[in-house]
Design brief:
single chain, alpha/beta, 9-stranded mixed beta sheet, 6-stranded parallel beta sheet, 19 strands
Length: 530
């Protein structure tokens, strides 16, 4: 039968049978409603059925091994009576104090089952009624479903992939598959946005002014084979680290921006553009020896035909660097999260990165880094870094031309960071998130979009990550919302930001689409042999 290397792992007490503490009487074994029917139907769909149970009562002397075996035999008999045969059953008889590798939330029993039964863990599910069940499944790389009655332990844990009220719901979620996981993630993402409001994000890095020269092309120059652009208007937009600050503000947060500008007209334009977008500029330090970094894009008929850059990429003076660090030191305690936006223009030196990371660590603030260059050891101390594919390839020094090479690159960057998370952005292929405490990277698919311009999408991703972490949500939850926000930005021409109402509408739209898919799959499942 197809798919027999995938398994349904499930807890026993409270998940398969009624929870009776430490059951010793076989006569008190009662299957939960719908459990046997659900297991039988899933076995017909190609799932191996494996029971995974903690039985610490044995080690604590609350039940004997004989009593435990008698209850186990009754469970098997009750299932067999309904035509269900298990493929495996694993018990941990140890107490928590023994710190064994098999007791949930440790995934030892799932690893043993996978090895002995030749199972594919990332195609399998772990179902349980306790956070320890969910954590064991998560550590093993399984999809997870919490069987949650709503009364025993408050809110369900956020790390559960899905939450089910009964075994009928479990079957629906599994038959729908990843659509249900996505639906649950989208629902949590909606709640996430409310947490952005008022969160303070301290941002340091390469601030820029993006100038757009708009016009039309009606002829070719007689002097050279180039188009003649007849200028109609100019617009000025904050770029680089300044665009990250604008995104934080437009999503309801409170950015504090720190960077270097010159004493020139572009600096004045940048101050004005930031002020109009609700970003304070007290952290912008003027250095008369440097120009304000500016990129002038010549736009004709909505498309870029040329770009002119004004910048210096050498390091800052000691005095300018000291002023930046003094500003960061004064403001880090007031921040909820911090950002380093490195565009390689000289602001993010090794000294500034090292001392700012130390400040964040001492104050317990998450630090998001948008990296640049080929030496990521300078970013040690970051909570998460966000290279795109080209940047990751440059950093590891080899071509990322396969999924295996991509995973190897992510792991290599994790090793360089000494424990930080790595989020590799992949454009139309979405994102791949490497968590420091996870054995498997998490794929975050992109939503299909009409892409007009990728300028500034990385700034948006960083802003949403920083706001998510500031609101107390996980790196995975924050990355999923950042993925959607970045998708909105690429549909706009030029350097752009995302407003909170746009992101909320996009999330709700995706949620509705997932619900439609869920209903269609559910209707289809009614025809399955269950």
């Amino acid at each position: 039968m197809a798919g027999t290397n995938r398994a349904l792992f499930f807890d026993r007490d409270g998940t398969l049978i009624h929870d009776a503490g430490y059951p010793r009487d076989p006569g008190q074994v009662y299957l939960l409603p719908g459990a046997a029917e659900a297991l039988g139907g899933l076995k017909q769909q190609g799932f191996r059925l494996v029971l995974i149970s903690n039985q610490s009562g044995i080690a604590r002397g609350l039940i004997t091994r004989d009593e435990a075996e008698a209850v186990h035999r009754e469970v098997l008999r009750a299932l067999q009576e309904r035509g269900v045969e298990l493929d495996g059953a694993y018990y941990c008889p140890h107490s928590p104090e023994e710190h064994c590798p098999c007791r949930k939330p440790s995934p030892g029993m799932l690893f043993d089952a996978a090895r002995e039964l030749n199972l594919q863990l990332d195609a399998s599910y772990m179902v349980g009624d306790k956070p320890t069940d969910i954590e064991a499944g998560r550590r093993a790389g399984c999809r997870t479903i919490l069987l949650y009655g709503g009364a025993s332990n408050g809110k369900p844990p956020h790390r559960a992939g899905c939450v089910a009220a009964n075994w009928d719901d479990i079957v629906d979620l599994i038959l729908v598959g990843r659509t249900a996981d996505m639906e649950d993630a989208q629902s949590r993402a909606t709640d996430l946005l409310a947490g952005f409001s008022g969160k303070r994000v301290l941002i340091v890095g390469d601030v820029m002014l993006d100038e757009y020269v708009w016009g039309n092309v009606t002829r070719v120059s007689p002097e050279a084979p180039v188009p003649v652009v007849e200028v109609e208007r100019k617009t000025y937009v904050p770029g680089g680290a300044a665009n990250t600050a604008v995104n934080v503000a437009s999503l309801g947060g409170k950015p504090a921006l720190c960077g270097i500008v010159g004493r020139d007209a572009h600096a004045r334009r940048l101050h004005n553009a930031l002020g109009r977008r609700g970003v304070t500029t007290s952290g912008l330090i003027a250095d008369p020896s440097r120009p304000t970094t500016a990129k002038s894009r010549i736009m004709a008929h909505g498309q870029q035909v040329a770009r002119i850059d004004r910048e210096r990429r050498d390091g800052l003076s000691r005095q300018a660097e000291d002023e930046l660090l003094q500003y960061l030191d004064r403001n880090v305690a007031e921040a909820d999260s911090c950002v380093v936006s490195d565009y390689g223009k000289g602001v993010v030196s090794q000294r500034l990165m090292r001392e700012f990371a130390s400040l964040c660590r001492r104050q317990g603030r998450p630090l998001v880094v948008d990296p640049k260059g080929d030496d990521y050891s300078r970013y040690i101390g970051a909570t998460i870094i966000t290279p795109n594919m080209a940047e990751a390839q440059l950093a590891v020094g080899w071509k990322i031309d396969s999924d295996d090479a991509l995973v190897r690159a992510g792991r290599t960057l994790q090793d360089v960071l000494k424990g930080g998370h790595v989020l590799i952005t992949r454009g139309a292929k979405g994102m791949l998130l490497f968590l420091s405490d996870s054995e498997r990277p998490i794929g975050i698919p992109a939503t299909a979009r009409n892409v007009f311009d990728v300028t500034g999408a990385g700034d948006t991703v960083v802003a949403v990550l920083a706001l998510g972490l500031a609101a107390g949500f996980s790196a995975e939850q924050s990355a999923r919302v950042a993925n959607q926000a970045g998708g909105i930005v690429v549909t706009k021409v030029g350097t752009a930001s995302v407003a909170i109402h746009e992101l909320r509408q996009d999330i709700l739209g995706a949620e509705q689409e997932n619900r439609k898919a869920f209903k269609l799959a559910r209707q289809h499942s009614n025809h399955a042999q269950l």
